[in-house]
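note to self: dont lose this again. the chain is below, predicted strucutre after it. 136 aa total, dont forget to put it in the shared folder this time
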Amino acid sequence: MPRPTARRTAPAEPPSSTGAGGEALEKDARACQYFLPYKLALASEVSRVVEEALEGLNELIAHGFLRGSLPDPDDPSKKVIDTLVESVCACASIRDDQTQMHVVRLLQTVVMSEPCFVHGHSLLFCVRTCFNIYLG
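---
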């Protein structure tokens, strides 16, 4: 009796990495439109609201829906990912253990996620925030 062979399927790619470059930019533009409510939630400094926003952003970035490669509409000299990092790092001042854990988890996702490119000042800000949480 022949043994059944296992079927191998290719792993699913994140939505932002499929198709042509123009399609990826269009998807990123649509995702960046939804960043403003998250930014406002992060600025609220209400622990539970901030935690929910951090969880939502973590999922969007981890699954490749939000790359943040486009210029920020409020400050065109920065990318959306840089504004996201600044907003998340500002939440580290909330002295709640769960909130700080969510901050560290999201910063890890942002730095390690392949479609997001965090460099320079934003990367230094991520490391500094994690270090300050560790010391705090």
